[in-house]
User: Which sequence fits this backbone?
């Protein structure tokens, strides 16, 4: 909603803001897509390591007097 409102003001204002608007928007989309691919490829390993750390911490907690 906020992005749409800002976009409408930029498009109606004088000057060459639309080129930069779409350039920045394209960069945001590219970075977001890259982060999604990163999580898709690395997420399983991250989750397994986190579960191992959690199980290890629970084991220490149970063993501590």
Assistant:
């Amino acid at each position: 909603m906020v992005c749409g409102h800002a976009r409408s003001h930029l498009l109606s204002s004088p000057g060459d803001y639309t080129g930069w608007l779409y350039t920045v928007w394209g960069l945001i989309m590219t970075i977001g897509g890259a982060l999604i691919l990163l999580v898709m490829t690395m997420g399983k390993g991250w989750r397994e390591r986190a579960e191992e750390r959690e199980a290890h911490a629970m084991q220490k907690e149970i063993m501590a007097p």
Q: What stands out?
A: The chain has one domain: 2-63. The CA atoms of residues 23 and 44 lie 33 Å apart. Residues 2-63 form one domain.
